[in-house]
């Protein structure tokens, strides 16, 4: 009789605690892509998320929170200013949702 290898089995019960954490992402994707077809909004959110993660992960400084704050507020401000300069009522600003 052959021994069962532990490495061939996947324990899905350890993944269940992560499922509630994915609910905001699924809801955001539903609204951005499913309802409004805002593929540019995903790009905008991805830039902000990756930038915030990179700042938090790679900047070892007591000023890291301030750097993250300035980056995210600057990113949002650029989106708002671009939307105001464009002045097209048919364009939705994702940073203001």
Task: Give an overview in words.
This protein has three helices and no strands. The chain is an all-alpha fold and 97 residues long. It has one domain. Helix 2 runs antiparallel to helix 3 (64-86). It is flat and about 45 Å long.
Fill in the keyword field for this structure.
mainly alpha; flat; 97 residues
Please write the string of helix (H) and strand (E) elements. Answer: HHH
Task: State the assembly state of the protein chains.
Answer: single chain
Mean pLDDT: 82
* Main pleated sheet: none
Poorly predicted runs:
none
Morphology call:
flat
Number of domains: 1
Helical amount: 55-70%
* Share of β-strand residues: under 5%
Computed over alpha carbons, the radius of gyration is 20 Å
How many extended strands? Answer: 0
From the N-terminal CA to the C-terminal CA, the straight-line distance is: 60 Å
What structural category do the secondary elements indicate?
Answer: mainly alpha
Total number of helices:
3
Sequence-ordered SSE layout with sheet pairings:
Blueprint: H1 23-35, H2 39-58, H3 64-86
Helix pairs in contact: 2-3
Q: In short, what is this structure?
A:
The chain is 58% helix and 0% strand. The protein has 97 residues and is an all-alpha fold.
């Amino acid at each position: 009789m052959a021994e069962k290898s532990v490495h061939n089995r996947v324990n899905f019960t350890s993944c269940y605690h992560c499922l509630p954490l994915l609910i905001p992402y699924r809801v955001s994707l539903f609204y951005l892509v499913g309802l409004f077809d805002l593929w540019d909004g995903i790009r905008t959110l991805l830039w902000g998320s990756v930038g915030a993660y990179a700042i938090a992960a790679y900047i070892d400084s007591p000023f890291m929170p301030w750097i993250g704050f300035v980056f995210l507020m600057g990113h949002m401000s650029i989106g708002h200013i671009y939307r105001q300069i464009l002045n097209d009522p048919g364009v939705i600003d994702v940073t203001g949702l």
